[in-house]
Amino acid sequence: MERRGLLHAGTALAATALTTTVASPAHAARRRPTFVLVHGANGNGYSFAPLAAELALAGFGAVPVDLPGHGPAANYPASYQSPQDLAAFADAPSPTLAGTALADNADHVAGIVRRAAAHGPVILLGQSMGGATVTLAADRVPGLITRLVYLSAFCCTAFRSVADAFGSPEAAGSLLGDIPPVGDPARTGVLRTNWRAAEVVAPAKAALAADYDEAAFGAVLNGFEPDEAAAVATDDARGDRRRWGRVPRTYVRFTADRAIPLALQDRMIADADAATPGNRFTVHSLRAPHLGPQDAAVLMDVLAGLA
């Protein structure tokens, strides 16, 4: 099951982008797309800060999203702080994420798309487990999305859920299972990781960011949130072919990904194309680990060509 993920994003940046970039009359006149950026498990909008800056500098709108229970609403219990109380941390229910469903994420993102679409075209982007959210958000507002973009992300059509995808033969090479979990999701309602534990660092780097330098990965690691809603990985993540299936879509393959192996990425692309043969993925490939290129400008080169 998806363990943890991945991209992290700042609420202040999101608010600034929505206020200054999306609402700008010049932006509306140019009709340049606004990119709505959706993070994966254990993430928030902060990891999109470098990409959002590149997008804004190129004249696009950029709205990094904090999904429900993430960002300012994330759970950082006292037992997770220093000194840590590991027994309490393993047992404490999450006050913000226990009970959160994939549908809650999709409703939240659909609401943001509605606001952004009032000012021009919207490109909705999801990374990792954020792909499940953008698929169901597109079911809700297909006519308001110019294009869906999946960054090494889950796109479930033949697979019912993210967890089902991880149970497939194509996922056998994933290293996410090497990252030790904390606690029992049946008690806490969440998938929990102690990102501050020494034994987590090496397997997390191998799975998520093998080619990042140590300083860059340290910064990323400190942005991860300890909790992710357990139901998001197990809820039905399949899009409606008549709604999600009619939105143009792009898949950016990360060929060095050791969390969602390339074989699983390709399986999901093929499954989606078979489900909607009249609306197939356009596909781009980058040699990047699960977190994407360390230099956001490399990804920007791909995204700018989609607008």
Automatic annotation (TrEMBL):
Under Gene3D superfamilies, the record lists: alpha/beta hydrolase
Q: Which UniProt keywords apply?
A: Signal
Q: Which InterPro entries match?
A: AB_hydrolase_1 (IPR000073), AB_hydrolase_fold (IPR029058), Sec-Metab_Biosynth_Hydrolase (IPR052897), TAT_signal (IPR006311)
User: What positions does the domain AB hydrolase-1 occupy?
Assistant: 35-281
Q: Is Signal included in the keywords of this UniProt record?
A: yes
Q: Which residues form the signal peptide?
A: 1-28
Query: GO molecular function of the protein, one example?
Result: catalytic activity
PANTHER family the UniProt entry points to: AB HYDROLASE-1 DOMAIN-CONTAINING PROTEIN-RELATED, ESTERASE_LIPASE_THIOESTERASE DOMAIN-CONTAINING PROTEIN
Which named protein is this?
Pimeloyl-ACP methyl ester carboxylesterase
